[in-house]
Write a structure and sequence with these properties.
With 378 residues, the chain is mainly β. It contains 2 helices and 31 strands. Strands 2, 3, 4, 5 and 6 form a 5-stranded antiparallel sheet that branches.
């Protein structure tokens, strides 16, 4: 999944998403130089909280089908949903060439993944037609992109009955294949953000979208947005953190001249962000503006490429891998965002995404037909 080409493309993306008005730090200090508040010395530590341990297992629903790719699972109100991409051979054409049909099949589980019920089938032409997945206002959403004329949300309230909802309000340029394959639709504080490409957008109703702007002019873009008591925070390239009260108008501050920010999350009163590899690649902050290096209790984080950070069930999970495709994924856990423990079992390669629900952390594994399920040990 992660290879040199992908790294190059993502680096270009970070540069594109960064704003030229932000000042770079001359000394590579991760504390913000432009935020006027408490001094960093008063914010550089938290009370130690021992990180929990997780136990992991492979989970394969075993649907007895040729599976090309599993769609990201989603959880809401006691229900899990998931989709799988299937290829069915229909026969031979007049030239003797095999003819195939392809589609996504959706399932819902109402008993905590013990059993699954098939609910709907959606014809598509390739396994990456699903470009984003999220829950919002009590509904499940998968963003389907087939071509420039066919982009819609496949949505359900209970996981059983699904509706196709046209994507409206976004410019046509945003609905191109090369854009939507990079865009990330996600939810923060009940608003839906479309980030990862420039320009970025935000909506409160999935019908009217507003471009995210810098207060002093220009586009405000980055990777993902997190909401906490201090407000919205968005991590982007070259160490720039963007911050906002309403998710529409943004300011920016430089926290480092070199660190590209990936995912950001908020929980237990702190923000956590993952960045490129290095000893300070995982950071925490009380206000999302002044950042501090995390403490690693049992690991050497110098070669980890942090692709994701989430908060759920009272704890943070950070995951990533090495620089080459097929490298072992690392999974680290923290309760306070400052003190982290790498999990004993790191055999799951290329963790793409982790979703929390009802005590379970369900990881999608790139290129595999199973999930990895983690739970806190007693």
């Amino acid at each position: 999944m992660i290879n040199i080409l992908m790294l190059f493309v993502m680096t270009l993306l970070f540069i594109a998403c960064d704003d030229s008005s932000a000042n770079s730090s001359a000394d590579n200090d991760i504390s913000s130089s432009s935020y006027e508040g408490e001094s960093s010395s008063s914010l550089d530590s938290l009370e130690y909280v021992e990180p929990p341990k997780l136990s992991g297992r492979e989970y394969n629903p075993d649907f007895n089908a040729i599976i090309e790719q599993l769609a990201p699972p989603l959880y809401n109100d006691g229900k899990w949903v998931m989709g799988r991409f299937e290829i069915e051979r229909l026969g031979l054409n007049e030239n003797g060439v095999p003819v195939y049909d392809s589609y996504y099949v959706f399932f819902v589980s109402k008993d905590d993944m013990a059993t699954w019920e098939k609910t709907d089938t959606l014809r598509c032409n390739r396994h990456d037609n699903i470009t984003s997945a999220f829950t919002w206002n009590g509904r499940f959403y998968y963003l389907f992109h087939v071509d420039e004329e066919t982009t819609f949300f496949f949505s359900s309230e209970d996981g059983s009955q699904w509706d196709s909802i046209p994507v409206v309000g976004l410019p046509a340029e945003f609905l191109k294949d090369e854009v939507l394959q990079k865009a990330d639709f996600h939810v923060a504080n009940n608003k839906v953000f479309a980030t990862g490409v420039d320009p970025c957008y935000v909506s409160s109703d999935l019908e009217t979208w507003q471009e995210m702007k810098l207060r002093d002019g220009g586009s405000a873009c980055g990777n993902n947005v997190a909401w906490g008591e201090p407000g919205y925070r968005m991590s982007s390239g070259s160490g720039v953190i963007k911050y906002s009260d309403d998710g529409i108008i943004w300011d920016s501050t430089s926290t480092s001249g070199t660190l590209n920010g990936y995912k950001i999350a908020f929980g237990n009163g702190v923000y956590v962000r993952g960045t490129y590899n290095g000893g300070d690649a995982l950071q925490w902050s009380r206000d999302g503006l002044e950042w501090h290096r995390a403490n690693f209790m049992n690991s050497n984080p110098s070669s980890i490429f942090y692709e994701g950070v989430i908060f759920g069930g009272g704890i943070f999970l950070a995951y990533g891998g090495g620089m080459m495709a097929g490298s072992t994924s690392y999974l680290l856990v923290s309760e306070n965002g400052q003190d982290w423990v790498q999990q004993d079992r790191v055999a799951y390669r290329d963790i793409e995404r982790v979703v929390y629900g009802n005590g379970k952390y369900v990881a999608t594994i790139y290129g595999e037909n199973y999930f990895a399920v983690f739970q806190k040990e007693p």
